[in-house]
Amino acid sequence: ASAEEDNSEDSGKSVSKDSKSDSSGERSVQIIIKPQTGSGSSTDSSEGQEPQFLPPIL
């Protein structure tokens, strides 16, 4: 029973770690894209000729 419990915990820990890493990575990308989009939008409104720069970023 002890061995079984250990195995279960190890498996759960591994999955949890993987899941957390994946989530963190995905979120990191989203966070990085958000600031860029906001900055582009701000410049776009100020210059008006920035719209051409927005498509490449996307």
TrEMBL record:
It comes from the Eukaryota. Residues 1-58 are annotated as: Disordered. Residues 36-50 have a biased composition (Low complexity). Residues 10-25 have a biased composition (Basic and acidic residues). This is Uncharacterized protein. It comes from Cirrhinus mrigala.
